[in-house]
Amino acid sequence: MEQGGTLIRYRHKPSVIGFGAVVGKKEHDGPLGDYFDLYSSDDRFGKNTWEQAESEMQRLLFQLLLQKTRLKETGIGGIFAGDLQNQCAASGYGLKSYDIPYFGLYGACSTMAESLLLASAMVEGGFLDKAAAVSSSHFCSAERQFRSPIEYGGQRTPTSQWTVTGAGGVILGKEGPGPYISAVLPGRVVDKEIKDANNMGAAMAPAFIDTLTRFFQESGTSPADFDLILSGDLGQVGHDIVMDLMGTQGYDLRNVYQDCGMMIYDSQTQDVHAGGSGCGCSASVLCGYVLHQMRRGMFGRVLLLCTGALLSTSSVLQGLSIPGIAHLICFTSQRIGGGI
């Protein structure tokens, strides 16, 4: 492990051993529906409440990961997991049946990248032989906690986004078929005084720009060195801001930049306004589609930047601005000679 500035380069490059994604019906009906492992036709996953349904998503997901990798619980040194519920309740309840050390994380919608960063660091450092990174969100549980119960029927602004009902997870290890994590860059809290809780894309885009520009500067790379640069859930609004502001700094992202929140839904046929959001957005797109395509050889080098809006219901009611954060994970299909 080597650190220069805020960029951490991995010498051994922890490997993705297995991955999977569990989603709701709306996500299954979207453009990436065929890539997800499991889905629920009513988003309840056999449970009585939305919160319990989200926990069940995580339980099913981790069960799926163990089955796909043919690993036992005793072979996993730790689970790094988080969600949008208070006290990370979805993760705690969903993973409590597994006899594995658990680390509950909250990074808002950046949680998937945060969990990958910490899990990969533990494997790279030799502290754990294998570690799991998991994250989830549920449209109805998020609406109840952050906005209004869905029965209220409130109108949504054009800049608002649709919280993804989905969970994604990865098991990392010292050895495996790949892809590999070659470098990570922790995000910094960036606050540009955006106060509109219905415009998360604008609130989070500055953090994405801060992290990505630092990565290019510290790694000596450019957008042309990557097959895909992926933001977690900036949606259409945040995506456009990134394209404009990165362009003014001399970075042309037109051929490589996509957003998970714009990929998971069909904007023409599914009414999601500015796109998808939530911890499960980047988690399900990464673990359902992107890693699958890397193994097929479609992508060789991928940058994942999951963005999070670090607000609470109290901070919004108090009129405070919305800080953002973005953690970066660099994936490569080759352990040797794959570059950073």
**Order of adjacent strands in the largest pleated sheet:** 1-2-10-15-14-11-12
- How many domains make up the coordinates? 2
The quaternary state of the protein chains shown equals: single chain
Order of helices and strands: EEEHEHEHEHEHEEEHEHEHEHEHE
Amino-to-carboxy terminus distance: 12 Å
Shape: globular
* Text of the CATH class of the largest domain: Alpha Beta
CATH superfamily of the largest domain: Stage V sporulation protein AD
CATH topology of the largest domain: Peroxisomal Thiolase, Chain A, domain 1
Radius of gyration: 18 Å
Q: Spans with pLDDT under 50 lasting ≥5 residues?
A: none
What does this structure look like?
This protein is α/β, with parallel strands linked by helices. It contains ten helices and 15 strands. It folds into two domains: about 1-175, Stage V sporulation protein AD (Peroxisomal Thiolase, Chain A, domain 1, 3-Layer(aba) Sandwich), CATH 3.40.47.40; about 180-330, 3-Layer(aba) Sandwich (Peroxisomal Thiolase, Chain A, domain 1). The strands form three sheets. A seven-stranded mixed beta sheet has the order 1-2-10-15-14-11-12, with helices on both faces. A six-stranded mixed beta sheet has the order 4-3-9-7-5-6, sandwiched between helices. Strand 3 (about 15-25), helix 1 and strand 4 (about 40) form a beta-alpha-beta unit. The longest helix has 20 residues, at about 50-70.
